[in-house]
Amino acid sequence: MSSMEAAGLWVGLNILLLIFLSARVGQARTMFKINIGDGDHPEMTKAIRTQGNYIEYAPAAIGGLITLALLGAHPVVIHGLGAVFFLGRIAHLLGLGMNKWGQGRMVGTILTMVTLLVTALALFYFSFT
Known about the structure:
Largest sheet: none
Number of strands: 0
Mean pLDDT: 97
Number of helices: 4
Order of helices and strands: HHHH
Strand content: under 5%
Distance between the termini: 23 Å
Shape: elongated
């Protein structure tokens, strides 16, 4: 698998995750009959924040993966960063969005930040070598 193919895999998985998170917001809106905002309903707020938080970080992570692939990073680098980011977002979903794992939000946030930091450093490295 080439670097671009690896990036494509992780971009595709992240698109599917975005669709899932968006569907959860739509489902909550239907269930609680809330058209705009969160209606002061905690579950609606959690669904909105889980999707919103994903949207805040995914563009940088996905853009980083694609750029690293274009700069010639090895597919293992792309897979490593893609997997850690994706697992971090799943952990965040399980913690904040679904209340299934008490530490999930914290673990997801840490994994996301570590991925973004390592991606940034890798981008500097591959840009100057």
